[in-house]
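Q: Convert this sequence to structure tokens.
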Amino acid sequence: MTFETALSTGSQAAPIVLLDDNLFTSARLASALRASGRQVLVARSIEPLQECDTVLINLGSRTLKGVSLIEPLRARFPQAKVLGFCGHLETEIRQAARAAGIHRLLTNESATALGWLSSTQFESQGEDK
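A:
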């Protein structure tokens, strides 16, 4: 399954939730997601979320603590796809995200590269290829 497929199979009514506290990264990712035709809600916590079917988390954020959000998100929104990104050298974060049940992982470079929505392939609980 491609990452694009993972994002496009969700309900078009529910926005993609981008959990990120980095203004530059979140603006760039939100713009790419909106260009694909999806609504995007940028948030810094899960508390105000009412509905979601796809969540993209900045796992590398020191203040957001993204890995700790995976299990609560999966419990609160069991139908949601939980996707995350962090640096390729952040192996402990990537391992913790897999253990917490993340659906897909990608690197910061893959997430922010132009064309990442249509060109990057992912496997279940997989990595960038």
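The longest strand covers residues 81-86.
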